[in-house]
Amino acid sequence: MTGSALPEALDDLSIAYCSTVIAESASADEVERLIERLATEAERTVELERAGADDAWDDPLTADVRDLATQPPVVRYVNLLVRDAFDAGASDIHLEATRAGLSARFRLDGILIPAPEAPAALHHAIVSRVKLLAELDIAERRRPQDGRIRVRLESRELDLRVSTVPTMYGESVVLRLLDRGGRLVGLVDLGMSPATLHAMQSLARKPYGLILVTGPTGSGKTTTLYAALLSREAATEKLITVEDPIEYQLPGVTQVPVHREAGISFAQALRSILRQDPDVLMIGEMRDSETAGLAVQAAMTGHLVFSTLHTNDALGAIPRLTDLGVPSYLVAATLEAVLAQRLVRRVCERCAEKYTPSREELSLLGLSEEEMNAVGQLVHGTGCAACRSTGYRGRVGVFELVMVSDELREAIAHGASEGELRALIDGPVSHGATLRSDGWAKALAGLTTIEEVLRVVQS
After folding, report:
1. Are 176 and 271 in contact (CB under 8 A)?
2. What is the pTM of this model?
3. CA distances from 29 to 25, 35, 159 (A)
4. SS3 18
5. Is the dihedral of CA 264, 268, 273, 275 positive or negative?
């Protein structure tokens, strides 16, 4: 195509697709690969299954919606969205209803990025397609719904957790991707410092007690608990988990799903499995006083209990347990350690380059003059095709471990405030790196950047 004909062609495409078309240069090989991918997308092995029978679609009120949701353009778009999300390593797919139509985004390494754009005219059909596959009521658009889809991508199996909510402009949908065939990681793969890793390995081998992992949603708490369970001898011990939902299948471990519709909550499941003669328990989350009380009682009666809490740092787990109604003396008697964690994005190895940070950047981390003077060059990503021009690819954990020493145990038993506990662990009985100092160590090692540390670690 000649240079003079290009603007006219772009105008034609803009009219045809009702959107702005931007021209970018690409090699002939890149163009061929893209054409081949688009041409064969419908033929590639992407199977989305639902377990229900077709009898549910006899209702004439939903027949038209079902027909529209099974049209080839809708099926192709949903299949393409799932495959692109998997290929990119995304954890979630967000389909958001807006005034202009349906907006699609992927959560990649904790950050939302644009996904293949949905055709504006197919907004409701795409949402209905997802709901159909998840066995949700496609005629009900006024209340939130939750479901699950099983996906086969060639030789891989995925579970998609589906959540819908009604909004001003229609329903918005989020799909969480869980790779059933993904490789389980051990404690050594999480990015802990040698001291923290050694301590966690020792804690995971304890015969009894309570070990907590804290952090916000999506910070990798469940992955850490799985890694701790994998360090146990499943062949000679009874390992049981209670989860909502079960994210990965662990060999040799009895995994119990929470099912509230059937009357099975964390507390009810825990009460039952304590009669199953377990050695090690993993409770997906302590959400209420009953679950917390049962977990502490299990730790008191000779079981090792792993669980999670939502707190800002490791020390915050102690007052949180007392807020849940656990007496201070029981917290002191059972709690062995609390691990706080976050996930920071890794610098992309393909476009990584060294640079000299400014003193303003370093001052944001609260470094002393001496520490800032000692800093040489750090590493950041310039952006490339492999990292989708973000400069980051993959994530690594940032950790803060508080071991409950005798001094700390005594202070907890006497009802010390969080401030008094913090003064104790920051004083003569220091318990190692904080989240910020561990993040800074990873920035110095070239694994992440100052911006990432500041983004995920609270001041």
Report:
1. no
2. 0.78
3. 12, 10, 34
4. coil
5. negative
Using DSSP's 3-state secondary structure scheme, residue 447 falls into coil
Q: CB–CB of 351/387 below 8 Å?
A: yes
Q: Scanning the structure block, which residue is given the tokens 């999506």?
A: 218
Q: What is the DSSP letter of 367?
A: -
DSSP string of 341-361, one letter each residue: EEEEEEEPTTTEEEEPPPHHH
Crossing angle (nearest 10°) for helices 123-133 and 60-69: 100
Query: Tens digit of pLDDT for each residue in 377-391?
Result: 899 999 988 888 889
Q: 33 φ, ψ to 5°?
A: -65, -40
If DSSP codes are grouped into helix, strand and coil, which group holds residue 322?
helix
Task: Give the angle subtended at the CA of 242 by the CAs of 153 and 185, to the nearest 5°.
Answer: 50
- DSSP secondary structure code for residue 72 in this structure: H
| Per-residue pLDDT reduced to its tens digit, 22-68 | 777 777 766 766 665 555 544 444 555 443 333 333 443 344 545 55
pLDDT value for 370: 80
Among residues 332, 303, 314, the alpha carbon closest in space to that of 200 is found at: 314
Among the listed residues 430, 453, 431, the one whose alpha carbon sits nearest the alpha carbon of residue 441: 453
Question: In angstroms, rounded to a whole number, what is the distance separating the alpha carbons of residues 457 and 212?
Answer: 19
Number of Cβ within 10 Å of residue 310's Cβ equals 16
At 78, give phi and psi (nearest 5°): -65, -45
What lies within 8 Å, CB to CB, of 226 at 6+ separation is: 184, 185, 247, 248, 250
CA pair distance 431, 425, nearest whole angstrom: 6
Query: HSE of 71 in the Cβ direction (CA atoms, 13 Å)?
Result: 15
Q: Which helix (H) or strand (E) holds 307?
A: strand 304-309
Strand order in the sheet with 304-309: 254-257, 239-243, 280-283, 304-309, 209-214, 335-347, 392-403
First to last CA, the chain: 55
Taking the C-alpha atoms of residue 394 and residue 437, their distance in angstroms, rounded to an integer, is: 21
